[in-house]
Amino acid sequence: MTASAIEDLLRELAPQVLGALVRRYGQFEGCEDAVQEAVLAAAVQWRAEGAPDNPRGWLMTVASRRLIDQMRSDHARREREWATAAEAAPGDVPDTDDTLVLLFLCCHPTLTAASQTALTLRAVGGLTTAEIARAFLVPEGTMAVRISRAKQRIKAAGSSFTLPDGAEREERLRVVLHVLYLIFNEGYIASSGSELHRPDLAHEAIRLARMVHAQLPEDGEVTGLLALMLLTHARREARTTAAGDLVPLDEQDRTKWDRGLIDEGVQLIKGSLAGPELGPYQLQAAIAATHADAATAEETNWPQVHALYLILERIAPNPMVTLNRAIALAETEGPSAGLALLSTLDGDERIAGHHRLLSVRAHLLEKAGDTAGAYEHYRRAAKATASIAEQRYLESRAGRVRTAGLPAIRRP
Q1: Are 261 and 285 within 8 A, CB to CB?
Q2: Are 330 and 362 in contact (CB under 8 A)?
Q3: In terms of CB atoms within 10 Å, which of 75, 137, 158, 349 comes out highest?
Q4: For residues 184 and 165, what is the distance between their CA atoms, to the nearest angstrom?
C-alpha cells in the first residue's frame, strides 16, 4: 500500500474510531488525543510494515490502550502497552459509523467558527495540529491552544454524544455545512499567503461533504453543497498560469476543466433541484452548473445566472450575493446597471472596503470606459487583500487600464 493510500485510509478511519471511542468512554478530549497518537503510530508502522488485516481494529486497540494509560497516569504501564499495542487483538470494534455525530459535536454552537473549523479538521479530517496551522498560516502553538480550548468548551457544555432531535438537529446540520463550506473556500481561494489555492483543504472539504452526503443522501442542501464544491473545484487547473498567476473565469481555458467532476456535480444538483424546497447551497450549485454548461464565456446564460442570484438574495440576503448579482446584471443590462447595484453596498459595514467590492467596481468601471476610476479601484483592491496571488493580479489589471488610458503619442 502506498503512502498516499495509507494516508487516505487513516483519514477515513480516524473519525470512525474516535466516534466508537467516545461512545464507549465518553471523554471527547482524551479520546481525540488518543486517536491522534494512534494515527501517528500507524502512519509510521504501516508504511514500514504494511497495513494490518484489520486497520480499524488496530487503531481502536492502540487508541483504547493509550486512553487507558492516560486515565491511569501510569508511565511504566504506558511504555509496556505501547510496545505491544500493535500485536494486540483488535477486540470488539463496533460496526456503526458515528462520523456524523462527531461532526455535530465539533460544530457545537458554543464554539466560534474558527474553532469549529480547526476541531473538525483535526477530529474528523484527521489532520495534525501542525498541518492545520500551516493551512491557516498561524503558529502551531496558536492552533494547539485553539483546539485545546475548543475541546474544553465542549466538555464544559456537558454535550452528549448523540444526534440532536428535531429543529436543533436541523440547525446544527446547517452549522456543519457552513464549516465545510468555510474549509472549502479557504482551499479554493486562500485568504492570505503566496498561493491562490490550497488543494489539500479543498480535497478534505469535498471528502467530508461526501461523507455527510452518504449518510444524508435525501437532504437537498447537503447534496447542493457537495455539488457546489465539485463544480467549483473542477475549474482548479484553469485558474492559474504556469507561474501561479490568477486567471479570471471569463479568460480560463475551459478545456482544462475537469469534466468528470462537472458531470457528477451537474447530476447531483439536477436531482436536488427537484425537491420541494431550495436552499442557498443548491442555488449556488445551480449557478456554478450554469457556468459549467457554457463552452465559452460568451455563451454563458447570464439572464439565468441573474435570476438565480435574485432568488438567492431573497432567501439568504448577503452582501456577497448582491455583489455577484451586480456582475450578472452588468452582463445583461450593462455596466451602469451593475455599478448602480454596487452602490447600495457602500454603507454596508460587512463589505465596505473589502477587496472584492473594490475589484468588482474596478472591473465594471473598466467596462464602462472609466479607466481612471478603474485604475484607482484596482490599486485600492490590491492593497486591501492579504493574498499575494490576488495582489499580483489586481496590480496587473491596474497597470493595464492605466496604459490603456494614456493618450496616444503624437509623432512629428
Answers
A1: no
A2: no
A3: 137
A4: 27
Nearest-angstrom CA–CA distance, 124 and 129: 13
- How far is residue 230's CA from residue 2's CA, in Å, rounded to a whole number? 26
- For the chain, what is the radius of gyration of the CA atoms? 24
| Three-state secondary-structure class, residue 398 | helix
Backbone angles phi, psi at 277, to 5 degrees: -130, 155
C-alpha grid cell, residue 394: 489586481
Q: Which residue has the cell 499567503?
A: 193
Q: Are 239 and 223 in contact (CB under 8 A)?
A: no
Q: Nearest CA to 35 among 6, 3, 10?
A: 10
3-state helix, strand, coil in the chain (%, to 5): 70, 0, 25
Q: Which of 377, 369, 358, 379 is nearest to 405 (CA)?
A: 369
Query: Helix (H, G, I), strand (E, B), or coil: what is residue 253?
Result: coil
**Mean pLDDT of all residues in 91-111:** 75
Q: Please check the confidence at residue 366 and state whether its pLDDT lies above 70.
A: yes
> Directed axis angle between helix 280-293 and helix 302-315, to 10°?
170
Tens digits of per-residue pLDDT, 201-224?
Answer: 888 899 889 989 998 999 999 999
Cα 42 to Cα 14, 27, 46, 85, distances in angstroms: 11, 22, 5, 11
pLDDT in tens, 182-199: 889 888 876 655 566 778
AA letter at 242 = A
Residue recorded with cell 475549474? 235
